[in-house]
Design a protein that fits this description.
The protein is an all-beta fold. It contains no helices and 14 strands.
Amino acid sequence: MFNFSKKPKPSAREMYRHGDLLITRINAVPQSAINITSKVIAEGETSGHKHMLVGQATVRILPGRDADNKIIERVERGDVSINRIPELYFNAFEDVKLMHEEHKMLDLPSGSYKVTKEREFNPFEDLATGVLD
């Protein structure tokens, strides 16, 4: 016999906010993503402050082009600022912390995550730009 009084709970995606970043828990990082050595997922352009993972985690990016349509080769050499990478992912192999000088520390459980960087749209200039701490 079915019990129609109990509705199944919709599967809600876990989301976290850390300054201008939206961090969404996902099932898996895309297989085409490549590892980078840095644990910094965003930097302040003027202040130098960083959103940095502390703990066992690997930051990954999708190969392709950055926000200025330049080919992404390597982030480590300084060819591309981490802020110019449109899609950023990370695997946390244990519970990790996300730190930034101007925000509270954020505890994240182990898992796979996608990082979305906040953007703002100017309708007068028909221009979308990234928002940076």
